[in-house]
Amino acid sequence: MKKYIRNSLNHRLLRISLTVFMPMLFVMIYLLVSLSNATDAYRDITHNIVYANQYTQDFKGRIDYSMYLAVINQKSVEELEDGKMLVNGYVTVNPYKYINEMERACDRMSEWATVATSRNRIKRVKNTLRSLEKCVKTLEEGKNGNWKYQEQMDYFDMNIKNLTTLIQGGIQDYVYIETTNYENVREALDVKTRQSFMLCGVVTVFAVFIAGYMTIRATRSITIPIRELCDMTEKVAEGDFSVRTEKADLDEIGVLSQSFNDMTEEIGTLVEDIKTQQENLHLTETKLLQAQINPHFLYNTLDTIVWLAEEHKTDEVVNMVTALSSFFRTTLSKGRDFITVEEEESHIRSYLKIQQFRYQDILDYSIEIDEELREFVLPKLTLQPLVENALYHGIKNKRGKGMIRITGKKDGENIIFKVHDNGKGMTEEKLFELRSNMRKKKLDNNVNSFGVINVNQRLRHYYGKEYGLSYVSRQDEGTEVTVLVKAENIQPFT
At which of 163, 178, 206 does a domain end? Predict the structure, then answer.
């Protein structure tokens, strides 16, 4: 029936969670993006300033001193020793190469500029660089011509030095403009931060309101149908199998309600059949056991679910409802007498999950059935009555926490299951009485452990007298029951 679940409890809880967390997530993403953008802007500005500062102090000094040396030494700029460190700290350069380098640097600064004013200022610097290059060439031509030394020095002072001063000032302006952009970035970040906090407050209030409303509706959709199931279960416990629950939503509760209706209908049918089929007592007893649902077990389970729902323990409610639904489906199993080992394992696992919620302080369990046994079949309700017997007659009467261990393995043409508990155990007299009752051909309804003895008789009926149950028990140490069945993967009975 799982495939018919459309609006599951998990989906409802997921919608509530998304209602709260998704808006907050979007706000957080917005804040992170804003912070990232501001960080990128700060990084770009810092990078531009650091790069431009390389040329703020060095360009003018290197060009001026290099051209000064060329004039006073009456050398061509090509004859200067490129890269020579002077006593004043400046390094000699080839003016033409250095100007070209500076032009490429201006291209980078223009590309990296964060504001248009910086690009305009760098554009002016590039124009000045072209003028400087022409002046260097003119001075070179004059020095190689008839210009006197003083004429060269005058041209150097009036043109070269002035142009390098303008270039230095332009780069400094670029640095200043980029630096002032820090404040613009900070103000924009402050505005976005304030907007984000306001948005976060509005979104939080809205999300909490919607989530609260959805939570109340989800809780009511769980508790009301479960209370109705409790009332119906009480009537079933009194023997009224005609009761039916109203059709619920297509969720786990709806599946449980439908399973309950199917269960009561099936039980009612079986009860009527039992009244009219007294001629075959053995088969009648088998059907009784296979259709047997303990109303008190169901009522106590549903009562536990209601308590968990009222405590808003939604995860536990989902787990309990899912386990109970699975328990009912296997119990009914479409009227089949034989089920797979995998289905039987699922049945006892659902039963133990439910009981663990009720007896969590005293009950622990493990199931270790080999994977190769999954597709083999065995009579329905073979292991579950043994597990139930271990719980109620072993673990409940034990001080401290008890352990139920179920194992299964293939042995030749047979399958061996074992149900072991470390509970109260049995005395020698009690164990002898149990073994004697299991050897009886006709079952006495007054005999204790009716379910266990019925399991043994069904196994002997289907497989032969060499199969069935065997018990080993020690008082205050525990009990182990061994189940021997034939390894069959084709269902022999329907």
Answer: 206
